[in-house]
Amino acid sequence: MAESRDLSRGEATRAKLLDAAVTAFSEHGFHGTTTRDIASAAGMSPAAVYVHHSSKEELLYLISKAGHDTVITLLEQAVDSAGDPVDQLRAAVHAFAVHHVRSHVAARVVNYELAALSDRHQAEIQIIRHRIDQLFTDLVARGTAAGVFDPPNQRMAVVALQSLGIDIARWYREGGWSEDEIADAYVEMALRIVGA
Predict the structure, then answer these.
(1) Mean pLDDT over residues 178-192, rounded?
(2) Between 47 and 41, where is the model more confident?
(3) Half-sphere exposure of 112 (CA within 13 A, CB side)
(4) How confident is the model at residue 1 (pLDDT cuts 50, 70, 90)?
(5) How far apart are CA 98 and CA 92, in angstroms?
(6) Three-state DSSP class for residue 12
(7) For position 3, what pLDDT does the model report?
(8) What angle do CA 189, 193, 196 make, to 5 degrees?
(9) Is the distance from CB of 98 to CB of 166 less than 8 angstroms?
(10) pLDDT for the residue numbered 5
(11) How far is CA 3 from the centre of its chain?
(12) In terms of DSSP H, where are the helices of 81-153?
């Protein structure tokens, strides 16, 4: 029982450090953040970071991996929720936009601090990003083949669809448009991008 309590305490500490790292990286960038900044934001000593994580880069990797894994799961569920490419696109773009609104602080780190990852971690994240890209590529190709999409350039349409959602993390701030207003507007823009 004591071992279980220690394990959950350790998990809680790791989670607290991850949350503090998200905030610090989003405010100061990876290179502008020290482990002391992260520990201080978490209300801990700088040594606590190294007790629970091997490095500042490991924190960035864990944040990035979790963010990308969440996105691929959301997109796969959205595509699986409908049989028609138009409805699949609606669901995927809506889910993608809502995620980037709700997680805009973490998404800023996930999408704009990739260059700070080690080569090994960057390669792993690129595999997940390729899966996300492939999901959008396949969706646009299916809709085009079915005659329900008519984009002037399929590849550019795929890039634009992804950029719509990703860029929310750059500009979104609390107190503006609601997540549904943004997601609904983005769905309409996405349909225009693919020529639906």
Answers:
(1) 96
(2) 41
(3) 21
(4) very low
(5) 10
(6) helix
(7) 47
(8) 90
(9) no
(10) 54
(11) 34
(12) 85-102, 104-112, 119-145
Rounded CA gap, 28 and 35, in Å?
A: 12
pLDDT value, residue 2:
46
d(CA 24, CA 41): 8
pLDDT digits (tens, 9 = 90+) for 62-80: 999 999 999 999 999 999 9
d(CA 87, CA 79): 8
Q: In whole angstroms, what separates CA 175 from the centre of its chain?
A: 21
Tokens of 100: 């980037």
Query: In sequence order, which residues have a C-beta less than 8 Å from that of residue 154 and are 6 or more positions away?
Result: 137, 140, 141, 144
Residue range 30-54: mean pLDDT, rounded: 84
